[in-house]
Amino acid sequence: QVQLVESGGGSAQAGGSLRLSCAASSATGCMGWFRQAPGQEREGVAIISPAGGVTYYADSVKGRFTISRDNTKNTLYLQMNSLKPQDTAMYYCAAVGGGCYAAMRESDFDYWGQGTQVTVSS
To answer: What is the pLDDT of residue 21?
Structure first.
């Protein structure tokens, strides 16, 4: 069982930046970030391959968000720039033992963090 703990959420103005972190209790394969806004379904934001060489992004965040990982620290990151009010959501870290699939489906991931809130004001 892998435990995931997110941190770094908070409030920002539109156009600002935040950096999320996710500490894993042990090494994992594919990792990713998902988000869920009030009244909306959870959606994939970005995922990264086990070695970090391949990434996938939702169209809504391409060019603004960057996913990365430090396998020496078992930590996943999400750098969020040019934030928009529509980025407001609970952000969840996810992991699985194997590789990534570009579709970014929730069902592809076995382990989930508790979430960290991101609020962007206009």
So the answer is: 98
